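Let us work through a complete example step by step.
Step 1: write down the sequence.
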Amino acid sequence: MPEKVKPYEAEEGGKKEQVTQMFDNIAGGYDFLNRLLSARFDVRWRNILTEKILSHQPVDVLDVATGTADVAITLAKKSKDVKIKGVDISNNMLAIGKKKVDKQKFQDQIQLAWADAEKMDEENDAYDVVTCSFGVRNFENLELGLEEMYRITREGGFVYILEFSKPKIFPLKQLYNFYFSRILPLIGRIRSKDPKAYQYLYDSVQAFPDRENFLDKLQEAGYKNVAFKELTFGICQIYSGEK
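Step 2: predict the structure and record it as tokens.
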């Protein structure tokens, strides 16, 4: 089982409780800082992810750890035929997501709701595609969260997971580590109400079992034909699997 890095290591409470508190704290500036800190690469990554999802012509998609609903909204913009349910453990993130959905008039396509990713109130085999962006490394129990995603994926359906990883190429590896460990937390301290959140980002990426190690986790959960696609020299990966 991967190391359980928590946002507030010196404080009491489990990882799930602390992650919920962290995202509630940073919800107001989350979208702005995401664009700034990723140099808008996050927009490109979501476009690639959603194209892969829509290649299967899904009717029902579940977006786990939907946050402020960026993936759900991107899917709705690209296809009028897909219905998306986004779930998240942070009510403050969901509140911002709902405002974005309402503003763009996607209420008929997108439903947002609170849910614990490790114990979701969803029927078995309910979705053609289950997806999660930058969320699985925040699970308190990664294996349990992946098993839940598998449970609610339809037979013949797919999982798509977008997540940070650790670049291996010199000198990008060194530059990446310097940026994530020094520059990003500094910007977080200046612009965020919760600077520890951006130190946690680096720590959680370092602890996450990426590439082949994560494919093993997907297979253990039950998925077959697992694969990953590197994005931006290995800064991100799109993991996929079939039920």
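Step 3: interpret the result. The first strand starts at residue 60 and ends at 64.
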